[in-house]
Amino acid sequence: MENIKSVVYLQPLALEELIRAVIETYNRESIGDVFGYTVKRKSPLYVVEVVHPIQIATRKPTEVSADANYEDRTSWSALGDRLGDFHSHNLYYTKGGRSPGTIHLKSDFDVECLRENPQLISIVVAINKTSRVSPVTVNDKLIAGTVKVDGTMYRVGIGVYIYNNRVRKIDIGTSVKALKRIF
Predict the structure, then answer these.
(1) For range 108-118, the mean pLDDT
(2) pLDDT tens by residue, 26-84
(3) Which residues in 111-146 are b (16+ Cβ under 10 Å) and which e?
C-alpha cells in the first residue's frame, strides 16, 4: 500500500454527536461507530455524517468494550458506510498520580484493531474537565476547544488515526460554523 495523505471531514451533526457521547460518559470511556462515505481520489476523503455510540458496553475508567454480539446486531446500516470507530480518553489515575486524557493511541489493543482493519479510521476524543476557557485549536491533525454544559467546562480534543504500513495520525476538519456553535 502506498503512503497516502487521508483526510477526515466531520459534518457538524457528527461533531456534535461525538462530543455529546463523550460528555455523557465522562467518568468512563466512550466507544462507538462512525458512518458516512468515502470520496475516492488520490488521497481518500472520509466524510463522517453520523456517530453512533454503543449503548451496551463494558465501561471501566481506562477501557471500554462492546458486548460480544454487537457486530451481529449492527452489521447493517441505513446511515451510510461504516467508516470506522471512535473512543474517548478521559482522566485516569496511575501510580504516579492523575493523567489527563489525550488524543494519542495508548494501548496495544487500539493499534492492533487498526492493523486488522486498515480500511477503517479510528477517531480518538480526549476529554478533561477544566476551569478555564481555552481558544479553539484547529490544525491539520487536531480539533480542540472548550465546551460548557450546565456550568461545567470540558476541554475536548479530537484526532484521527488510520493504519497504512504503520499507525498514522491523519488530517481532520469541520466547518467553521460548527466550531463557532459548539466551542
Answers:
(1) 88
(2) 887 888 999 999 998 888 899 999 998 886 666 555 556 666 665 655 566 677 899 99
(3) bebbeeeeebbbbbbbbbebeeeeeeebeeebbbbb
Q: Bridge partners of 150?
A: none
Q: How far is CA 70 from CA 33, 56, 109, 161, in A?
A: 11, 8, 18, 22
Over 50: is that where the pLDDT of 1 sits?
no
Q: From 136, 143, 118, select the one nearest 9 (Cα to Cα).
A: 143
Cα–Cα dist 128/126, whole Å: 7
Please list, in sequence order, all residues whose beta carbon lies within 8 angstroms of the beta carbon of residue 2, skipping any fewer than 6 positions away: none
Bridge partners for 39 per DSSP: 45
In DSSP terms, which residues pair with 16 in a beta bridge?
Answer: none
For residues 20 and 18, give the distance between their C-alpha atoms in angstroms, rounded to a whole number: 6
Distance CA 34, CA 51 (A): 5
CA dihedral defined by 67, 73, 76, 79, rounded to 10 degrees?
-60
Report residue 160 as a C-alpha cell: 484521527
Distance CA 58, CA 60 (A): 7
**Which residue reads 460480544 in cell numbers?**
68
Burial 18-30 (b: 16+ CB within 10 A, else e): bbbbbbebbebbb
